[in-house]
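A favour, since you know our structure tokens better than I do. Go ahead and set the record down below.
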Amino acid sequence: MMVPVVVLPDPAAAARAAGAVVAWQVRGAVAARGHASLAVSGGSSPAAMFAELARLGVPWAAVSVLQVDERFAPDGDPERNLTTQRAELPAEARIHPMPVDDGDPGPYVSLVAELDVVHLGLGEDGHTASLVPHDPVLEVMDVDVAVTGVYRGHRRMTLTYPALDRARAIVWLVTGEGKAAVLPRLLAADPSIPAGRVAQDRALVVADTAAAAELP
């Protein structure tokens, strides 16, 4: 089954489109079950997506915002995904930070037992979340949240494949020419890159033209 791909002219347009899709999925979950769980990734590209979510008026009181991954860094550090998420998401968004301060992923497990929508990004090396090449965390299949080794200067806490694969919807936001070579491998479910091992049956990819340059 081929993952649907939406290609927009530039990163801003792609981020707005991804935000619209996420908002629609969240509203559907709230309508169906009275509550939604939304897991968001870090990085710079989601900022415009978060702004679109704020503009669209998601019913935040009924939404738990969770983290897909987080760096081990002090609270408020610009390296923390939480720092950007707190700055860009509306004040009424209920963000549940990953417990990197004490390093124990256990308390987070119950929060991610049922995920309605997961937002993922794609690294130039094929990583997603903090599922990074050659890290032992790639083989963790018995828990939903785990700690990685050091990657680009930080250990990280991340959702594992079992948690991601249970999500009711996955929205990939992929922008920039640096992703052009790896996006076809994601869509081909190439198991040699971490992102290629994420389940694709409930996924959508939103990309800009630069990232989609090598797609057929």
Observations:
- Residues 41 and 170 are 11 Å apart (CA to CA).
- The mean pLDDT is 95.
